[in-house]
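Example record

One chain of 102 residues, shown exactly as stored in the release files.
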Amino acid sequence: MTPNQLKPVTSPLARLKACLRVVGDWARGFIYGMTYFEMEQELRRQRADLEHLFVLISFGDLLGVPILPPYYSIRLLPYIVPMIDRWRRRMLREKDLTDLVG
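Predicted structure tokens for this chain:
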């Protein structure tokens, strides 16, 4: 084998395309971060808050806050089981004043 066979053969045009692709990906990520990232995080937080509020209303009796009759809680149980652990941890963790500010 000669040393030329070991080197990958790339044309200047292929290298330019690869470089432009990398720069384009970076620019796309930069613009996304400047415009939409914060709004997406806020929407995810709001959705999580609404899900936790729904679980609290439905299964508050697990924490001693009975709001709905148990009949409705039992009917909704199959839909809520996957998120009960996360919900209980979030509801029972200690909260600080700085949590409200953020």
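Notes: The mean pLDDT is 78.
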